[in-house]
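Hi there. Long-time user, first ticket. I'm pasting a complex I've been working with (about 1248 residues overall). I'd like to know whether the download I got is complete or cut off, because the file seemed smaller than I expected. Thanks.
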Amino acid sequence: MKFIHTADLHLDSPFLGLKGLPDALWQRIYESPLTAFKRLVSDAIDTQVDFVLITGDVYDRQERAINAQAAFLTEMERLNQAQIPVYLSYGNHDYLDAATDGLQLPANVHSFGEEVSSFKLTTRDQTKVEIVGFSYPARVVATDMAATFPDRDPQADVQIGMLHGSIAGKPGPHDTDAPFTVDELMSKHYDYWALGHIHKRQVLYEERPWIIYPGNIQGRHINETGEKGYMLVQQEQSRLVPTFHAVAPVVWNMQTVDCDSITSTSSLQQAIAKQLSQLADRVKAHSTKQSLEMLSLKLIHTDQLAAETKQRLTNGSLLSLLQSQEMARLAEANQLVVDLQLADEDSESTHFTQLDQHYWNQAADSVFAAENIAKTADQLFAEPTIASALAHSGEDLKQAVIRQVNAAGRNE
Amino acid sequence: MNITEINIDGFGKWQNKTFPINPQLQVFYGENEAGKTTIQKFVSSVLFGFATAKHPAEQYLPKTGAGYGGSLTFTMDDAQQTQYRLRRTSGKNGGDIQLTNLTTNQVMPPELLDQLLGPVDRTLNDATFNFDLSGLQLLTTVTQPELMANVQRVGAVGSTSWIELAEQFDKDADDLYRPRGQKPALNQQLTAYHDLQAQLKAAEASYPDFVKRQHDILSGKQRIAQLGDHIKELTSKRDELARIKQLWPVFEKYRDMSDGLPDVNEKLITAEDYADFLKLQTQREQLMQTSVRQVAQLKEQTAETPHDVQFYIDHQSAFKSQAASFDQIETAIHERQYSRQQVAEQSDERDQIVAKHRFNAPWPTPLNDSEYEQVSRLTQAGQQRATNGSKTREQWLMMGVGLVLLLLGLIMSSGVKWVFVLLGIAGLAGGWFNVLDWFRAQQAHGTAATKESSISELTQQHHMAGFPVDTWLALQPDIQRLNQLTDQIDSLKSRIQQLNADINHFFEGYQFAETQLPLTNLSAADALLKARQYTSEKELAVATVQGQSQQRLQLIRENSDLQSKLSEVTTSLQQVMQRYHIQTPNDFENLYQQQLQLADQTAERRALGNQLTPEWLAKLTSYQDLSAVDQRQAEVTADLQSDIEQRDQVQEDIANQQALFARQSEDDTMPMLRQRLANMETQLVETAQQWLVDRLSAQWIDGALNAASADRLPAIVERAQTYFATLTLAHYTKIEFINEALTVTTSQGTVFDVTELSRGTTEQLYIALRLGFASVMADRTAMPLIIDDAFVDFDRHRKQAMFNLMKELAQQVQVIYFTADAGALTTFDDNQITEL
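Hi, the file is complete. Here it is re-exported in full:
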């Protein structure tokens, strides 16, 4: 018995935080979530898994993504042709909504309703599998859904729970989504909890039960770093053994570049080039799947860097130069620097005299207060995108201001 | 802190130089490039560290090999007035420092320096305690309101540069975005972003269609399946109806037949009987036909024998005996003709010989051999003998040839044989005569007597009168020939007479038939030919007539046989018919055909019944008539047609929808737009953030400056008041903050708002406030106040006032003044002045 567990496909979601990328890459980039999913489906067919679990967020319902839904339909049809059933619980992004009923999926796709329910199947090797889950009826499910999951069915050889949600009490943007605790899940005595919602791959508990977030299959911004893929779970002598399989054609990565004793632009370029080629060699050495490495470089120990170099760093001209050089050898190296930043200052506000520090602090309190930010932004916050990004970013803004003021002070 | 000595190892132009410093007021005087600024930078570098390699101009590395750096000796304002020496030499992080407590003569840890400097760092020091020329000169370029702002924010450290910075940030912000602007970057980005959003919104509007389309396709497929079932149903119904229609005539016949077939009571004619009947009938027919033909033939053959044929038959024996001589007569005719020809030729030759020798009748006769001998002896002989000898040999040869020809003629069978025979006979005869001649001559040769008697006898005997004896021998061949010819002609003539008699006799045999076969005026050859033709012609006719009569006899015999056979057959036929009580063959045939038809009908009905199963019968019976079937068929066909059309329509619709669905599915406009929008958002937020950062930076600076100023202003104003009075030569005596507005009051008590002051006065007010601020700050830090030729533009009175003010300030804080103004030399004490 073997199955694939995946979640958070977000087939239609655009890549965030990208701009000014060479045109030649765009196609590859925005096809990447779908490419990743196609790879997954091909793997499922090739390895002849018994079923596929998708724990929510296939696409964003609000985005009304036609091609994503169509592509998903096509892939489901492929699995249908291969007679591989799919168990699908909708998440907070692709929640059930009778009003905007989406595409009808082929008969091999079994979707959960809003109440916790279960599907039973017997695999080719006669393993009786029971899969329990539910779908989000709306954008938000704040209740503890795990509590309503039934206890283990003694009839089942393998019992799996599908849950799109986050651990209760953890701070962050996800804390209101179907909160659960690991203890709670363990108390159900299932074999495997196929979680979804958190894009970072994590194993919350190892074996009896496995509690696993497979992560999304394609990182969509600079902070969703590392290889992305799905979990292939195989039964080996009544044990379930999950293994990770990378499928993302675009991989984000963060690298720090130590600039100690580097002063000029050309020596910085050399240092970066050296580090990139080492990285490319490493990636080639341990991965067979062709993927594009999208790198964000953080420069540390930059004290010695010439003012001109720093300026070229902040105004982005160095990044553009770097990218144009990389584009020439993209096919072989398969890596591209998309962000090039100086690390935050180690010590802050060096430019402010201690004598006046309390005046600065006093002023900062009012200047970086949300009300003042809103008041200053005024009409600009009529634009929701800007408002949501900046309205509550007082501390970030303050850091940015300090960086800017310090930079200005240095230039004096 | 009061600096008492500056000791430079190497810094800029200075090397191994020591300057003692007046702890109250120290003036450095020197022309431009004298090194004033270098000393100033040395002091701040030793206190706060050397500039790094990033700012080489600030480093003042010594041009020669001297050691970099040097030391400051200073006294702290603590209770013990502790003296320190701070030494800074080249090293990391601004240089290595060595701090010595001169009072206790102890080397102190470098960290102590931070304690000694307290809150003062380079920034604070530069901003608060260093007055430089350029800084004040800037004031002359700023506008009145800006100057006012500077004045009002004088209470913060480095307010001037902060204010500039804040202004720069505000300007940067305005370049990025203005609420009602169009050109700034963010305004443009917002416009582009909204356009893009609208595009995406438009693209999203097709989503419901998309979802509906899939549902339509699926329901269309269901509909096709339904229609397919219905079509199948209707098709089988249609086929059934077609079958019903096809069966209908059968059914109808079957139904009609069921209404009643006539019963058959008569005895059925058996097949054998019918076969016999047919056979007999046929035989009878044939016999009758044959009889008719025979009678007709007989009739034909009773015709008369033609008259000529009958004549021939009547005289057949005569004709036949005539015919027996045909060949003989033909030979005779030929011989006659040949003989006549011979006579003519030989007569010609005889006449020629007669004419040649002018023989008169009776012509000479040839000498016999003895006579010839006799004559020859009488004349001369010899040659003649040779001539006769050779001639005799030729005659023997002639006899041989004649014998051969005769034999050949006898062997040959055709008509030509007669020619050979005759020639052969002629040859033999000719030869024979000559041979006889020869024998005679031989005899004569021996018997020759006397010459004279013999000659006359001979002349008489041989009619040789007129010819001399010596010519006789020469004439002998011609005479012999003449004699021979005469004999031959005579013989031929007699033979011709004989033949004429035969031929005439033969033709006389036909005189009885002169009317039938007229031969009178014909040549013998033609007459013979005609007789031959007639005979064979008539013989044939006779044979024909005789054959016909034989046939006739045969026919009559046959006919009588036939008649008996016919009666036999008729009897048999009658017997057959009698079995069924039927009189005539016609009736028999009719009855048989009737019986046959009935049997067929019965069989057909049975066959029909076999075709119609009970199931089909039930179906057929449910229709009144064929038109009802037709009607039903029309209905079903129409329904089927409409279903098929519907299905085709739905199929076409689905195909269209699927094509649209596929196109929509593959349309990457939306993801591209969405990605572009996301990119735009990134840019937008970034720009907006930059704008906010600019704005907030300015705000923060303003806020901090305002806060500091508001807090310190009363103290600053209090100090500044006296400085202002000094600077204005006691024209203004009071500075006040009223309702957050700065006012000044003259010694006469007139109150001016700062906005009402002249530019010069405002500058003086600003300097007074700056010095007031430095003084206030010095209360806590006591850093030396370093003034770098800052008042060069002041008029003489004001400059003097400034010098006075410095002296005044020196009471409170150490003042180090760098100037190129020689006026200073006269104003200050010598122990306060160092000339560079």
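A couple of notes from our side: Chain A touches chain B through 69 residues (CB under 8 Å). Chain A has three domains: 2-246, 250-342, 354-411.
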